[in-house]
Each structure stands twice: as structure tokens, then as C-alpha cells.
From TrEMBL:
Keyword annotations from UniProtKB, A to Z: Lyase, Pyridoxal phosphate
Domain Aminotransferase class V: start-end pairs: 30-423
Matches recorded under InterPro entries: Aminotrans_V_dom, PyrdxlP-dep_Trfase, PyrdxlP-dep_Trfase_major, PyrdxlP-dep_Trfase_small
Protein name: Selenocysteine lyase/cysteine desulfurase
Entry keyword Lyase: yes
UniProt xrefs under Gene3D superfamilies: Aspartate Aminotransferase, domain 1, Type I PLP-dependent aspartate aminotransferase-like (Major domain)
GO terms assigned for molecular function: lyase activity
Length: 427
């Protein structure tokens, strides 16, 4: 497949790195699932805006007003990108982790949460941490099994449909890259009166997402995985629970009026709408960069992006299938559809050593570890009994038969075929 033309060219494609041989090669960034390189278009848009930026809201000066306008337009660009419904809100956050923690603090008291144990820790942990009752569903081995497990869990839930209930589920796994049956799970959840939030950190950068068509209640993603820089993310969806919740942070911007009371305390009236959860000076550049990425992806066509990526995925999976020592990790089987994210282990190899060698000998940047999804990776490796290791911590053992960590390769817009081919040759 031809390389991407503008506007999906990414920064960093000219970076060269030294190998142990002393030679220098172009860096093959194959760790998009952690953070994707920025689109050149995003960087150019941010650079063009930079001289004009000012603090949003209430500034009387021209640049402050301009920034306020651009900040609100950025919200609209995200709403268009996600195909939100009338009345849905876009809250700018720091990233997906922040978005899901915000939602965990905003759900009505007593909300019962359902999550598959296969989630990334960002979508697995905030609910329990917020003091909510969580039902963890075991790793399903097919889409049908996932839907049936949710159906059974909701039906068996003693609180019944009158209690507020929420399913949190990933759109695409950050470990296997496999797609989850979001529309079917949402249909099942809604039939039981439960709401749904989708962790789209790995889905939104690869596939067109329509909140309206999927009918999900909320969606979260990170700018730095969507070809924008670090520091900004999105929580988007239904306004009712968000408007009824305590503000995520207390401070200026979220408060509409604050008045001294006779007893010496202060009475606060909080804003409704996104401002309620965006106290403090917002990350205008981050929001603007996300909006720029949303527009660039839409203009280039997410379907074209996906089509090209699928050719790379096919090349990758066929190439790895030809190496008998390689085992590709999968929940849903060899035919499961995935985004450009794949994890594997190599028999007889320590995954950390293998990844280090890809870097030092071939200039290829992948990732090894448990990818902040410990229960999932342990299930996939069949090592549920192993001692916990830190998120991404290197494997302690010497090369052996049994892998405690996996190797993840991931790509997207701007990845040339040569990177995939070099990776396969190196493996
Ligand atoms: N969910 C998934 C599926 C992810 O892959 C990640 C990032 N690895 C996150 C959530 C957390 O995103 P962030 O680190 O940007 O908050």
C-alpha cells in the first residue's frame, strides 16, 4: 500500500537512531498504542495558533475572546467527530484515565458497575476506587460469550433495573487489539436499564466511531493516542448524570457564584454543562490539538485509514504465523477483527530481552510488559498464578519456556510498510 499523503503524515518519520552495530537507521515507531506520533497537520495548526493563545472565559481582550471561541469550537469538532446526539456534552480532561475517574465520581450514589476483568486498569480500577460496587466479569472467549455473560450478570444482580447501573467496556483491547461487540453489549445493557461507557482509547484512533449509532451513553479517549500531543483527553456523552454530580474539581470556572453565608461558610452554585467538571484554567492548546486531529482524520477519511491499516495487519499476522516460535495472544481466536495492535510471545525468549534486541539491533520501538491490563495478560499467558509485577516492569527471569510478559507491536497513520517488514524480518 502507498504511504499516506498529507494530511495523515506524522512527525518523527525522519528520526534516526543508532544501533549496536554503530550504524544508524530510521526509527520504526511501533508503539502507537502507548502514544501515537503527532500528525504534522496537528503540529502545524498548533504552531499557527500559538501566538494567539490566551486564557479562556471572561478575558476582555481580543486574544482571550479568540481563545474562548476556539476552545468552544474544539468541543464542537469533537462532538462532530464522535457523532454525538443533541444534548450530549464534551468535557475536556487530561486523558482517558482522567475521563473515567471523572465519570466514576459523577455516577449517582449506589451505582453498580459491571466490567470485564480484561479491561485496561484505567477502565478497571476507578469504580472500586470511588467506592462503587463492581461486578467483574471473567474473560470471555467470544463476542457471544461476552454478551451472554453481561446478560446473565445483569439479570442476576440483586439491585435490579431500578438501581443505577453502568457497564464499562473497551472498544478495542490495548493488548490484543481485538474489537469488542459494543453495539450488542450496549443493546443488552440498555434492555436491563444499565448505561454504558466505552473506553475508546484504542478504538477512536483507528475506526470511525458514532456514539449515536452505537447508542452508548459515554465515550472516553486520549489526545496522545489520537495523533495529538499529551495532556488532553475527552469524556463525552449524556449530560444528566454529569450535571447532577458534584464537580470533579472544586475551583474557579466550575463555580457560577460563591457567597459568604451568615454562619461563616460559603455557598457555592456550580455551573451546569462541561464547565462544571473543568475547574481551573483549561488546556486550550490540548483541546485545540485534539480538534485538529479529529478534523484531519475526518477529512482524510477514517475508512481509508482503516483499509490501509488492515493491509498492514494482514501482512503482520501472516508474517508472524510463519514463525513457529511466535504465539499471538488472542481472546477471540485467530479470525477476530483487530485494530493495529497485537501482542505476542516467542518461545524460548524473554520478552524484555526480545524487545530490547528489536530496539538495539533493528531500531524498532515496541513495548513489553503487562500493558496495564494484568488480569487479561495473565489469562492470555496462562500464568494467572504468577506474582504481580508492576505495569510494564521488565521480566525478572532469564530466557526460558514460560513468558511472564508479552511483546506488543502497534501502528496506525503514517506507518510505512517498511516498518512492518523490518519488524517481521527481525523477528
Ligand atoms: N484505556 C486503554 C484501552 C488504553 O490503552 C489506555 C492507555 N494505554 C488507557 C485507557 C489510558 O489512557 P491514558 O494513559 O491516556 O489515560
Amino acid at each position: 500500500p502507498a504511504a499516506f499523503a498529507e494530511p495523515l503524515a506524522v512527525l518523527g518519520s525522519e528520526v534516526e537512531v543508532p544501533l549496536v552495530s554503530g550504524e544508524k537507521v530510521g526509527y520504526a515507531a511501533l508503539d502507537y498504542a502507548a502514544s501515537a506520533p503527532a500528525l504534522r497537520r496537528v503540529w502545524d495548526d498548533v504552531a499557527a495558533y500559538a501566538p494567539y493563545y490566551g486564557s479562556v472565559h471572561r478575558g476582555a481582550g481580543y486574544l482571550s475572546q479568540l481563545s474562548t471561541e476556539l476552545y468552544e469550537q474544539s468541543r464542537q469538532a469533537v462532538a462532530d467527530f464522535l457523532d454525538l446526539r443533541e444534548g450530549d456534552q464534551v468535557v475536556f480532561t487530561r486523558a482517558t484515565t482522567d475521563s473515567l475517574n471523572l465519570l466514576a465520581g459523577a455516577v449517582p450514589a449506589g451505582t453498580r458497575v459491571f466490567a470485564f476483568e480484561t479491561e485496561h486498569h484505567a477502565s478497571l480500577l476507578p469504580w472500586q476506587q470511588a467506592g462503587l460496587a463492581v461486578t467483574y466479569l471473567r474473560a470471555p472467549r467470544s463476542h457471544a460469550e461476552a454478551v451472554a455473560a453481561l446478560d446473565a450478570a445483569l439479570a442476576a444482580d440483586p439491585a435490579g433495573p431500578d438501581a443505577p447501573r453502568l457497564l464499562c467496556v473497551t472498544g478495542a483491547s490495548n493488548v490484543t487489539g481485538e474489537l469488542w461487540p459494543i453495539a450488542e453489549l450496549t443493546g443488552t445493557a440498555h434492555r436491563h436499564g444499565a448505561r454504558v461507557v466505552v473506553d475508546a482509547a484504542q478504538l477512536a484512533p483507528h475506526h470511525r466511531v458514532s456514539v449515536r449509532e452505537l447508542d452508548v451513553d459515554w465515550i472516553a479517549f486520549s489526545g496522545h493516542k489520537l495523533y495529538a500531543p499529551f495532556g488532553a483527553g475527552v469524556l463525552a456523552g449524556r449530560a444528566d448524570w454529569l450535571d447532577a454530580a458534584e464537580p470533579y474539581l472544586a475551583g474557579g470556572g466550575a463555580s457560577r457564584t460563591v457567597a459568604r453565608q451568615a454562619d461563616g461558610s460559603v455557598a457555592v452554585e456550580w455551573h451546569r454543562g462541561p464547565a462544571r467538571h473543568e475547574a481551573g484554567s483549561p488546556n486550550v492548546i490540548g483541546a485545540y490539538a485534539i480538534a485538529s486531529a479529529c478534523r484531519a482524520l475526518t477529512e482524510a477519511g477514517l475508512d481509508a485509514l482503516r483499509e490501509r491499516e488492515e493491509l498492514l495487519i494482514e501482512r503482520l499476522t501472516e508474517g508472524l504465523a510463519a514463525v513457529p516460535e511466535v504465539r499471538v495472544l488472542s481472546l477471540f481466536g485467530a479470525d477476530a477483527a483487530r485494530v493495529g495492535v497485537l501482542s505476542f510471545v516467542v518461545r524460548g525468549w524473554n520478552s524484555s530481552h526480545f524487545s530490547a534486541a528489536l530496539s538495539a539491533e533493528y531500531g524498532i520501538g515496541v513495548r513489553d510488559g503487562l500493558f496495564c491490563a494484568h488480569p487479561l495478560v495473565r489469562t492470555l499467558l496462562g500464568s494467572e498464578d504468577t506474582a504481580p509485577s508492576e505495569c510494564g516492569a521488565p521480566e525478572p527471569s532469564l530466557p526460558g519456556e514460560r513468558s511472564l510478559n508479552a511483546i506488543r507491536v502497534s501502528f496506525g497513520a503514517g506507518t510505512p510498510l517498511e516498518h512492518v517488514d523490518r519488524f517481521l524480518a527481525a523477528v
